[in-house]
Amino acid sequence: MIRQKRGRPRLDRALSTAISNSPTKSNKHHVRSVRLPHSQVERKYREGLNSELERLRRAVPTLPQSDEGASMGHIKPSKAMVLSFAIDYIHEIERERDGLREEKTRLERSVWTKGGKVDK
């Protein structure tokens, strides 16, 4: 007795490639794409992740920029450093925002106590 494997049946790659590369009348509008090997998918994923980390590094002013790094003797920050500095920078600008909100509220109250009007 031969046991069948469970799951989706596999296609012969040579057959599926031949089918996808030679459209006939019946499959002209239904051409299959050939899957990329896992290593290529992984590389594309890593490249995308690295480019977004580079964008984040450039957006955080407390990190050395790539053109400054070589001339000033800075080493390229690790991915963990980029994330850590980005989190610290976000916390810093949130504190600044909160301080400005408090100052705005204080100034509005000051104007109201002096009988002025506040335009919002």
Summarize the structure in words:
The protein is mainly alpha-helical and 120 residues long. The protein has a domain at 38-66 and 76-115: Helix-loop-helix DNA-binding domain (MYOD Basic-Helix-Loop-Helix Domain, subunit B, Irregular), CATH 4.10.280.10. It has helices at 13-21, 38-59, 66-72, 79-113. α2 (38-59) runs parallel beside α4. The relative contact order is 0.05. The model has no long low-confidence stretch (mean pLDDT 80).
Which radius of gyration do the C-alpha atoms yield? 29 Å
User: Tell me about the biggest sheet?
Assistant: none
What value does the average pLDDT take?
80
| Succession of helices and strands | HHHH
Number of strands: 0
Fill in the CATH topology of the domain at 38-66 and 76-115.
MYOD Basic-Helix-Loop-Helix Domain, subunit B
Name given to the CATH architecture of the domain at 38-66 and 76-115:
Irregular
CATH homology group of the domain at 38-66 and 76-115: Helix-loop-helix DNA-binding domain
Q: Low-confidence stretches at least 5 residues in length (pLDDT < 50)?
A: none
Class computed from helices, strands and strand pairing: mainly alpha
Query: Can you count the helices?
Result: 4
Provide the helix percentage. 55-70%
Which percent band covers the strand fraction? under 5%
What's the end-to-end separation, in Å?
82 Å
- Can you tell me the CATH class of the domain at 38-66 and 76-115? Few Secondary Structures
Q: What shape does the CA trace take?
A: elongated
